[in-house]
Amino acid sequence: MKSDGKYQEILIRERLIERGRRLFEAPRNFIEFTGKREADELLNDLEQYPHAFVIACVMDRQVPAERAWLIPYKLSLKLGDFHFSTLRLLSEREICNLMLNPEPLHRFPEEMARNLYRAVRVIEKEYGSDASKIWKGRPSSAEVVYRFLQFRGVGPKIATMAVNILARDFKIPFSDYYSIDISADVHVRRVFHRLGLVSEKPTVEGVIYRARSLYPEFPGLLDLPCWEIGRNWCKPRGPACDGCYMKDLCPFGKGEQRQ
Ligand code: SF4
Known about the structure:
This protein is mainly α. The chain has helices at 4-25, 37-44, 50-59, 65-79, 84-87, 92-100, 109-127, 141-149, 156-168, 186-194, 204-214, 223-232.
């Protein structure tokens, strides 16, 4: 017979998966990446500008995400458009000038200019100038994570985040979802801890592996429900447990655990 704690954990897992599935199966909506409508329109236009999404992922390092994801739009203003045919004609020096002047677009503009130049070369040579070939044709999630890792400056965190956004928000079909991890940011870690899924002071790696053990078929599915709970109810101080749909199962919400 299962212990009460184990049984409760199973119920928590089931409820998070159910909510995650519902969000995953919802129709594709406009995605807010930056809060600036024109910049988000460019990033949402995966059909015409798939390279804008890839380049934003490449820029997403060591600056707030909103600033990184604005870079394709800011470049498009300087260039007059953001067609790949325009990007592929730029030299590394020209990209560096665009990234540096009149104001730096990134905290590390020269390094990011190098990464951007190399990204354009990869899209040109490996994908025939069409970045959507990175994810077209129902490849496995591992294959697409691997393809993102081939871009200079992209590590496992950004690569799995990119594939998670493609699957969850853009509704791109993959043959499996095993390699899409949870994005264990501070809110997700807090919700995992309060739900009793990980111990106190959970590490990023701890939460990633816990999500893999809870739902190996698609660990990233747990991302959005936890993020949603964190944003709406599970605030760092004074969580609003009365409104939270996990309250009847959550050890913290029931007062069994206090930080
Ligand atoms: S019940 Fe309270 S502590 Fe538990 S996840 Fe919801 S808001 Fe957080």
